[in-house]
Amino acid sequence: MTLHLAVALDGAGWHPAAWRESPADVFSPAHWAGLLAEAERGLLDLVTIEDALGLQSTLPDGPDDRTDQVRGRFDAVLLAARLAPLTTRIGLVPTATTTHTEPFHVAIGIATLDHVSGGRAGWRPQVSPRASEAAHFGRREFPPLDQVLNRPGGADLSADPHVRDLFAEAADAVEVARRLWDSWEDDAEIRDVATGRFLDRGKLHYADFAGRFFSVKGPSITPRPPQGQPVVAALAHARLPYEFAARAADVVLVTPHSAGQARAIVEEVRALSPDLKIFADLLVFLDEDGQAARRRKARLDELDGAELASDAAIFTGTPAELAEVLLEWRRTGIEGFRLRPGALPHDLFRITRGLTAELRRRGAFRHAYEAATLRGLLGLPRPAGRYAETAP
Amino acid sequence: MTRRRVHLAAHFPGVNNTTVWADPRSGSQIAFSSFAHLARTAERGGFDFFFLAEGLRLRELKGRIHDLDVAGRPESLTVLSALAAVTDRLGLAGTVNATFNEPYELARRLATLDHLSGGRAGWNVVTTSDAFTGANFRRGGFLDHADRYERAAEFVRLARRLWDSWEPDAVAADREAGVFVRPGSIGEVEHRGRHFSIRGRFTLPRSPQGRPVIIQAGDSDEGREFAAAEADVVFSRHGGLAEGKAFYADVKARLARYGRKPHQLKIMPAATYALGDTEAEAAENAAVIRRQQVSPQTAIAFLEQVWGRDLSGHDPDGPFPAVEPDLSSDLSQGRVAIKDRAGVAARWRALAEEKKLSIRELVIEVTGRQTFVGTPQSVARQIDEHVQAGAADGFILVPHLTPGGLDDFVDRVVPLLRERGAVRAGYTGTTLREHLELE
User: Fold this and answer.
1) How far is B187 from chain A (nearest CA, A)?
2) What's the whole-model pTM score?
3) Are B199 and A135 inside 8 Å of each other by CB?
4) Does A113 sit within 8 Å of B171, measured CB to CB?
C-alpha cells in the first residue's frame, strides 16, 4: 500500500524567517502557480492552503507589531480557484473558517471550487477562537484567547466552553455544507423540452437545517459538485477536535511527535471512527546533506530571534531519512502525511523530487496519478446523495 | 465634439427566462469551460469586463421550486478567480449581496480577486430585505427598504477604508534588512456605525486597483443617489434612446454634489441583440429567440406571477384569462417583485384585446427587450448612436445562449465598431479602472 502525500502551503514557508532566504513573492499569483505545478509534477495527492480572518501574529490573540515576518494572506478558497485551471490532477484544499463566515457561502464556494477543478476540491474547516478576529465582525464578543489559555486547565482548549461552542458550530457548518452538496441530485437538470422543464424539482431538496448557531433552508444554488461531496480535512490536536473530525471530516490531520505518539493517536481516533483517513503533519527542512538542513534551520532561527516552535513535529534531515520516518509511522496506522515545507520553494522541491523518489524506491508512492478526482486519489468512494431515492 | 468611446461588457447568461436552454447549441451553465469560453470571447472582443449575476436562493412559484428556467449557478467570486487564470486583461465583475456578507470578509475576498487578477476586479453591490433569501443565512431577512442603501453605503465606505488601510508601499520585503512590512504601515481600522462596528487590521496589502470597481444596479431615487456617491459603473435597465437619455442626464447631474466629474461614473444599460444578414432575417431571428424564451409553460408562469392565481388550466395559445388578478396573494418568491400588479394586469388585458393576442403572444410582446436587432452594420451603428447621443456610456450585453452567445457579436459587430473608431482597437491598460477610463 502506498502512502498519501500532501503539502501545506503558507506564505514563503512555515519558518517565519523563510522569506529572508526565499525568492518567493507571496502576493504574486506566479509564486503560487509555480508551487502548484511543482507539487503536481511530484504527483502529490493534494495541497492545503492556510488562511485566517486576521493577520499572522506571534501573540496568542491580536496583531503583534513585528515587521520582520510575512504579514498578509489571500483568501484561500479564491486562491485555490485561481490555481485550479493551471493544474489537472492535484487536490486543492483551502482553509476556511466556520466561525464568522456564512455556512451557505462557504458551502457553495467549495462546491464551485469542485466544479472549476473537475472534482479536486477539499475544505479544511477551522475555528477562529481569537477575540481580535471576532472584532473584525463586531457581531460576537469573544474572551481574549490569552485569557482562555490562562484559565485553569487552559492548556487544553478543549475544556473551555467558548472553544466547545466553536467546535459545535463548526460541526453544524460542515453538516450544512454536506446537506447543501446533496441538495441537488446528480441528475436534477433534465432540460425536457416537451414539458418545458429545465429541472426535475423532485430531485431538489431543502436542507432544512436549524441549529443553535444558525439555520439554513436550502437547497443550494450550486448543483451537486463532481465529487458529490468535496473532501473535508480537519487539523486536530486533542480529544475535542478528534471528535469533530470523526463526526464531520473525511481526513484528520494529526500532530504526533514520535511513532509511539502516532500509535496512541491512531488508537484514539480509530475508536471514534473506523473510516476516517489519518494523516500526520510534519514540518520539514530537507537537504541532500542532513547537516545542511540543520544549518539552514539554525540560520533561520537566528534570523527570527527564536527557535522555531510548532504544533507539529519538526524534521530536519535528508529525504531518505524522512522516508524512513514516514514508513515507520505508517506502521502505526498513519495513512498519509501532510508536510509543511520550512522554506518555499526549497523544501517543496526536496519533497517532490527527493522524497517521492525515495518512497517510490521503497514501493510506497505512486508512479502516476491513478484517478481524476481527489476522492479517487485518496481511495474515498463518491457518496450517494442522502436525499436521492435508491432504486428498489 | 470629440467622439465618446463605447464601453462594452458581457453578462454570463444565467438564471432568467432570457437564457435559452432548449436550443441545441445551449451548453452547460455550470461547467467551467462555459465560463471560460464566454470570457475569452469577451476578451477577444476587447470588452471592459465580464459580469456574473448572483442568486442566493432558488426561485419559487406557487410554493414550489421554479423549474422552467435555467437554475443553478456557481459562487461568483470563486468562478471569477478561476477565470483570472484563463484571461489576461478582461475585467471580472460579480454581484455580491451586501446584506448577507460582512465588510471585513467580503473586502478581503474582493481584494484577493484584485490581486489574483492583476487589478481586474469589480463588485456589483446589491442589498435585499428579502426574508425568503435570508432563510439561508445567519442574518435572516431584516432590512427595511429604506435602510438598504444606507447599509450598502456604510458597507462600501468601510470596505474602502479596509482596502486603503495598508500604505501603498507597506510591503518592503527587504531581505537584507529583514523588513517585510514597513513599521507603522498597516493601519488600524476602527468603525462605529449604525450597521457595522469593527476594529482591527486588514490582512492584505493594497491591491493593484487600490479598490475594486464598484458597480450599482438600482433604479430608485435612493439607488441613483447611492450610485452618484459611491459607484464607478451603473448597470441600468434603460436601453431605449429616450429613457436612456433621461436616466443618463439625471444620474450624471447628481455627481457634482459629491465632487465627482461625469466621466467618473459610467452608465451601462443591459442590452440584448439579434443579428441577421438582412434586417428581415434579423427580425425573424429575434422572433425565434423570443419564442424560445417564452415557452407555453413560461407564458402561463409569467401571468401567474402578476395574477397571483393558479392559471395552469388555461391554454397558453388560447385567449387571455377572464379571471381578475388576486392582489392579496403573491405566488412568486425569489424574484424581483412586480410593482403595481393591478396596473400591469390592466395594461396587458387591454393590449391582448386590442391586438387579439393569445396568452403566449401577449407575454412575448410585453416582456420583450431585444435592444438591438439588425444586421451587424445596423447594430454597430445603433450602439454607437446611443452613446454619441448621451443615452449611455456603453452596454452590458446579455446573450441568450451559453456559452457561444457572444461569438457572433465579437466576430461580426466588434470589427465594425472598431472601424467606426467607436471602441478601442485593443486593450491599452491592464486594470479594469483603466479600461473604463475612470481616472
Assistant:
1) 11
2) 0.97
3) yes
4) no
